[in-house]
Amino acid sequence: MATAAIIxxxxxxNTAYRPDRDYIDGELKKRNVGEQPHGDLQMILGxxxxxxxxxxGVRPLGDSRLQVTSTRYRIPDVMVVRNADxxxxxxxxxxLLCIEILSKEDRLNEIQERVDDYAQMGVRxxxxxxxxxxxxxxxxxxxxxxxxxxxxxxxxxxxxIALADIFSQLDEF
Length: 173
What we know:
Elements: H1 9-13, E1 22-24, E2 27-29, H2 36-51, H3 53-56, E3 58-62, E4 66-69, E5 72-74, E6 78-82, E7 97-101, H4 108-121, E8 125-130, E9 135-140, E10 143-145, E11 151-153, E12 160-162, H5 163-170
Parallel strand pairs: 7-8
Antiparallel strand pairs: 1-2, 1-5, 3-6, 4-5, 6-7, 8-9, 9-10, 11-12
Helix pairs in contact: 2-5
């Protein structure tokens, strides 16, 4: 069995990967991306947050590196930070929200490691959305929970997005 090569952190931070990769304790981890429903949903969510940036006081970031520990960097599909947060090249503070959009090959048990990293960093609101099954979850270290009313929310804010609304946009054309 082959082992993955250990990449120095400095090399990861100074290299542009296409697509970008997570960096987990010295190993580069491939992310499942590239499918239309995934990319379309990423754009829909980014647009919703961008259009409401002043009302909600947020900035959406797509495919941006998040330092979850000194040796772990994740790239959420959509990350939402507060307008007052720093504009550093790499996010090293706790974002308001991390969103993971499942690709066809992703499984919830596999995405749990990503969710655990966000939760251990202190991210309170984590959403996982499956565009294939038209399901969305609030996620955390204790698992995945579907909102009873079909609305994903960010605690202690006015941010609320109905899953039916975003899925209807996927079905428009």
